[in-house]
Queue: 4 jobs
Job 1
Amino acid sequence: MKDQPEQDEDLFRQLLDDVTPLKPNDRRASSPTPRKPYLRNAPPEAEIADTLSDHGAGDNAPTEYLSNGLNRMTLRKLRRGEWPVQDELDLHGLNSDEARRLLSSFLHQAAQQGLRCVNVIHGKGWHSEKGEGLLRRLARHWLIQHPLVLAFCDAPLHAGGSGAAWILLKSTARENGSGSSPTV
């Protein structure tokens, strides 16, 4: 068993023998410029009321949230990925006002389309002043306030880890085919 790491390293080197390194000018910059988030068919800003507040956002961002009256199993199922992520929003590079408006618009649009689970990438804040995750803290504070959000948790590592949140949205009456109230 002690020989295994050496064997793995030898095998890895053999596999890389035929690989041609990229020319220096073909390499991606180590710190790419932040990409603007993409939002399909965004409704006009005027249609969506901006009711999310920064007031009361503490120093720590919650890692998870569950709306009152919901079973803890809902949050467990969200963490396990039992609801597939149906859309994604990246807030990198935005100031807090832009991020708040875009997040609100994105959640509204997702609910209108009948989406149940979305991923919002807010970043960890490592490159911000003092290394504080201001956008991370604010985004999660806004999610708690948003009427369409039932629950959220840290995304798994492959989807952004603590720099992103998987969000479970209320189902709409249109999706479940009745005029009844939203369901989990």
Job 2
Amino acid sequence: MTAAQVGTGQLPLVQMTGVTKHFPIQRGVMRRTVGHVRAVDGVDMTIPSGSSMGLVGESGSGKSTLGRLMLRLIEPTSGTIMFEDSDVTRLKARSLRRIRRHMQMVFQDPYSSMDPRSSVGDSVAEPLRTQLGLRGRELDERVADLFRLVRLSPTYRGRYPNEFSGGQLQRIAVARALATNPKLVVCDEPVSSLDVSTKAEVINLLADLQDELGIAYLFIAHDLGVVRHVSDRIGVMYLGRLVEEGDAEAVYSSPKHPYTQALLSAIPVPDPVVQRSRTRIVLEGDLPSPANPPSGCHFHTRCPYVMDVCRAVDPPLAVTSDGTRVFCHLIPPTGAEVLVPPAP
């Protein structure tokens, strides 16, 4: 929570504290639990109303799992998830269903998120029937309004998912997510399967809708370049943990954590001269297994600046002068300055 929010008594829209999700590993005829996959391992995150939080990291870092936990599509192992003044983790079925109208999700693959046997108009109308109880002419008018909202003609309502391009179908998925006037939309890599031009159109649409409707986003992606354009703040996940989180421009222009620096160095620049002058940080090795994460700092097995303390001790939280939250031994707990790392 920001100082301004504390002063006004305003609650954040979402506040996650110490959230974990450990999936059991079961083997044998008796399906005995022999270990756990630590998909999310103690994450704190706050999303104010009307703001955008970008979440980036490699595949397997726990981004999508965290998004599903936020909406309680899967049950957390521990921690609290506050949506306004309600603890989502403690809600019973009926109360959870009521609050779900305020929390919606746009999935990565628009084709698999739609029923191929139903028209797209029926798919958009379904939450209006089940959550808001709309029927007849009122329902038809609301569906038509939603198609116009995402820049599509209402005449498309009777068509089926196989008749649309990926970009068009993702717009329809956005329309369905907005049907119940949610306060939060979790976008789980919504543009990763689209081509470059269509990707830009969908990103611009999401930004316009936020300005128009005042909704908050959790925007999950593996590309920091994409997240920068739709996020007020950016969180970087590695092996189930947030390693850096701060203002989008601060993270993008002055990354503190070596993992964030490596992700940014991989983004191509559309200027050949600048691109040739950049130094690419190549991480050696693969992402460790979340079933057996390294001791100490989880990133130490791939970090070019690894020190002995990194292998044994979890890095403490440091808050830098620009408000960025970082978990790295290279940064003093005061966050006053970044220590000069040894040569990799």
Job 3
Amino acid sequence: MTNVMDLQKMIKAAKEMQDRLQKELGGLRAEGSSGGGMVSVVLDGHKALRSIRIDPEVAGQDDVDMLQDLIVAAFNDAAAKVDEVLAQKLGGLGAGLKVPGLL
């Protein structure tokens, strides 16, 4: 009976840790940029796009293709920064574990 109680305590602790992590990820902000800062994006810890800033200089009609490439590059830069922060925060917690959606 003690083993079942211990298992329930472990499951409860894991759920609480997961809830705290999810809340912390929601508050995390990572900014990525491209084109020397002409385009920047901010992602939260869930890699949801929170904001985008485009320098008016690159918004000319002839520059649409370049602008699209810059947005993709800035988004990917911010996503990589989220991964870095997560790796630091998780540290040895999951040493070697690949958690889908996190890393």
Job 4
Amino acid sequence: MPDHAHPPDNPGARPLLADHALKKPLKVLDVWALGVGVVITGEYFGWNFALKDNGPVAVLVASLIVCLLYLTWVLALSELSVAMPFAGGPLAYGRRAAGPAMGFVMGWSMFLECQFATITTALATGGYIAFLLNPAAPSDTVAVWAALATVVIFFVLHVWGVKEQSTAMVWMTYGAILGLVIFWCLAATNFRWDRVWTNPLFPAGKGWRAVLDAVPYALWWLVMIETVALAAEEAHQPHRTIPRGLVWSQLTLIVLVVLTWLFACGAVDDTQALGDITVGYPLAKVVAEIPVGRSPWAIYGFGLIALFGMIASYHGMVYGTSRQAFALGRAGYLPGILGKVHSERRTPVPSLALCSLVTAAFVVANLKYKEAIAVALLVSTLTALVWYVLAITCLFILRKREPELFQNYRAPVARVLPVAVVVLSIFAAVVYVGIDIKVLPITAALYAVGLIYYFAWSRSRLKAWAPEESSARQARVPEEP
């Protein structure tokens, strides 16, 4: 079998590689900001859907389960991202551990997770702006135009450059955290413990089933933290930068989750109303309903700062979606045009354009389909769970077959953590069967489309020089015929 570990040494090969190379400017603060920023929208909306028919205590228990899942996940993920610091992330792990088919399934899973999370956040950002402009009757038309403006603005920012958008990400993350602190202070003025610690703790007749039903929405608190793994190819000294940035961002987020849940549920009498599927702005709704919210300075002051939470996450989600599409295109799993970068700015313009167009299409479709935001949220979290389990499978395979890959970084409690990730992920995935919004058929159809494209077209057109492919070939992973 010929050695494809390196591209052919000829004048035509070097420019081709130059068209697919990224800069490496990101340090620990940048990675922390990316990790917190991409997830912090979960504190501003989405988790509140778990309150419907379940109650605050059930949501707390579900949220703590989710926090445990993600804390173990980021520690295990650090091993893979440091061992294979490629923009392809999941694609690289699956390709090296089990061949191109596994690489595609993992890369496709994360692409779907990122794309639908981006759609969810764009819709929520538009709805949030519409609420601020008219709290009594938010306009659907205004929401669509605001969401489309968000798509365009951040497409331009990401095309501009990775260092520039990373600097913006740091400041937007600070603003998003400040918005939560302001919310806690405002909500504390109308806080009562009996609204949080209800009697009975779980809804009568439902019991612990309420916790299970809350889990799929509670996942939104922290989903997309793994986007940081996609930054490994653009990180300075990834063996130090990625683990530190991931862990610090995760610990920061756990604190934000607990305090946001506490003050949101403790400030209003009717937490069921917060769980309505049309409420994409629960924190602003809480402020509007408490006495301090009668002051325009309170609701609009908080609302404007809270927009940082929405756009910070949208910003990070666009980063994750475009990098995954870029890596899949660069390696030949998706159309090759997606794997090209701008000749000067080194940003993946075609993949950014595709992701932005898909998001814009779903934003417009939301005018007719009001459950779009909940469906997109659940598809995002479910596809995430799929690749978490597959990633840990790859981790065990590679640890056994290529232990030298992990000499720069090993997770603490290295044997227990991955098992915990698998158990918690499977538990979380199973409960999707019982929720009202049926996303399993939609998710299955999305995987079917991807697999048909892979086996019918791209399997025989993979690029030997792509980093994910080259890494796997160096390791002499058997190729599919």
